[in-house]
Write a structure and sequence with these properties.
By secondary structure, the chain is an alpha/beta fold. The chain is 41% helix and 24% strand.
Length: 275
């Protein structure tokens, strides 16, 4: 079953401001897989559950056309405001009913969204939409990001982060099970394509202000659930964590830049020529 979240206007704006997108290096893994199995040029890419469109814009550099789809009008409103690339369009729809013809897309991808879908139905729909030898790419990252800052004890810094994540664990959606990585691993096993790849640990490092790291965690569904239940407690938790991190770093501004190591996992699968 599908789980619908992240649809409010404030959350959509937060998504655009704080949510990270895959690096060029990570996207290159997808492009290399697609080129190996289908070849160039790349025609249509469909970015399902595109949110505010960060990943959609990255794909636009490599495909003739890219369509981002999302169920949330608020997310698409933000995406449309930010889209400058002429080869990007957006469509509002559910992930399990994509408005594309059979065998029309070179790539169908979902970046940090697949776990919210009705997964079996979406995989069937992706199969329908993909061209023969087109590729499916499902990417996500774990909450246990790691911080580093020059001349600072990394262990002490990340102990604070671990306590932050632990405080949010009770508010984790039951739709995700014990770990979202299990859902992707299960999907990998269920896809009957002979050519597929599974990568469980791909570290991507980004430099950002500490305030942006805080905003990123606050955009997660678990923090948002806490915020809905007890706004005062959520805000106090965030403020306390930020102050503790600054104390460990020996800085006074949350705009101080830190390196955030993000642990991605992904699956890539190529639809066979004959099915």
């Amino acid at each position: 079953m599908t789980c619908r979240l992240f649809e409010g206007k404030e959350h959509a704006a937060s998504y655009w401001k704080y949510r990270i997108s895959p690096s060029d290096h990570l996207i290159q893994q997808v492009l290399d897989f697609l080129e190996k199995h289908r070849g160039r040029p790349f025609g249509l890419a469909v970015d399902v559950g595109c949110g505010s469109g960060q990943g959609t814009r990255i794909l636009s550099k490599h495909f003739t056309s890219v369509v981002g789809t999302d169920v949330s009008p608020a997310q698409l409103e933000v995406a449309l405001k930010k889209a400058k690339e002429p080869n990007i369009t957006y469509r509002q729809c559910v992930a399990e009913e994509l408005p594309f013809a059979d065998s029309s897309a070179d790539l169908v991808t979902a970046m940090s969204a697949f776990h919210w879908f009705d997964r079996p139905r979406f995989l069937q729909e992706a199969h329908r939409v993909l061209k023969p030898q087109g590729c499916l790419a499902l990417l996500n990252y774990t909450i246990n990001m790691e911080l580093s800052y020059p001349h600072c004890c990394k262990h002490a810094l990340n102990q604070v982060c671990k306590e932050f994540y632990a405080a949010l664990e009770p508010y984790r959606s039951p739709h995700l099970g014990q770990s979202s990585i299990d859902l992707y691993r299960e999907a990998y096993g269920s896809i009957p394509y002979p050519n597929k790849e599974w990568q469980e640990c791909f570290w991507d490092r980004k430099i950002m202000p500490l305030s942006s790291y805080m905003g990123l965690v606050e955009s997660f569904s678990s923090y948002q659930a806490l915020l809905r239940e007890d706004p005062q407690r959520a805000n106090k938790l965030s403020q306390d964590v930020s102050e503790r991190l600054m104390s460990v770093m020996k800085v006074t501004s949350a705009e101080t830049e830190v390196t955030v190591a993000v642990k991605y996992f992904y699956l890539l699968a190529c639809k066979p020529q004959e099915t």
